[in-house]
Design brief:
alpha+beta, 196 residues, 8 strands
């Protein structure tokens, strides 16, 4: 009887590695859910959703906030984001993102973005909006400082109509990371309520 060793090795690999990958994935999702539960307890929120995609729901100054954390895969980037639904729309869309090689090259080729005249901030972040006055008014010293403190995390802030999104391109794995992300989102809510 002829034994197909390639098939046996393949079968052993699949039966050994596949369950290990599933166990590691479940452990990672459990860790995310546990961190969200700590934040829910601390901030009077709740954790809802499926085990594989828990969502932290809370309210800040009567504004709903939903936090999700998505591990990366072959087809999507990892991210943790706070999504906020504002009660009234902002006057203009605005995006703030960490400067990258691509955005710096774009500037040299003529792409424009709003500069606040604060060298440290302008060097680290790119601001896109049609309303420069709105950006200058919104991004006070306090928000600039919070963004600069988080520059290693590469936060991205988007404001479109009644939608505010604060995102970092990774899975947040610490209480401090969640605290920083939510503090930044709450600071944007505060500032939008002040200027709007």
């Amino acid at each position: 009887m002829d034994v197909d060793w390639v098939f046996i090795l393949y079968l052993g690999f699949v039966l050994g590695i596949f369950p290990l990958v599933i166990i590691l994935s479940l452990w990672r999702y459990r860790a995310i859910k546990r961190l969200m539960e700590h934040q829910a307890t601390k901030r009077n929120g709740t954790v809802v959703g499926a085990f594989l995609l828990p969502r932290l729901k809370l309210t800040y100054k009567e504004v709903p906030v939903v936090v999700t954390s998505v591990p990366g895969s072959k087809y999507r980037h990892a991210k943790t984001q706070a999504n906020v639904t504002l009660h009234t729309p902002v006057p203009q869309d605005l995006t703030i993102q960490k400067e990258s090689v691509g955005t710096r090259l774009g500037k040299k080729l003529g792409a424009s973005d709003v500069e606040l005249g604060i060298d440290d901030f302008d060097r680290e972040y790119q601001i896109k909006t049609q309303d420069e006055l709105f950006a200058r008014n919104l991004l006070n010293f306090s928000l600039q400082s919070k963004l600069l403190e988080m520059k290693q995390d590469k936060p991205r802030v988007s404001i479109h109509g009644t939608w505010l999104q604060v995102e970092v391109p990774r899975v947040v794995k610490t209480e401090t990371g969640y605290d920083q992300l939510l503090d930044l989102a709450f600071s944007f809510i505060d500032r939008i309520l002040e200027v709007h």
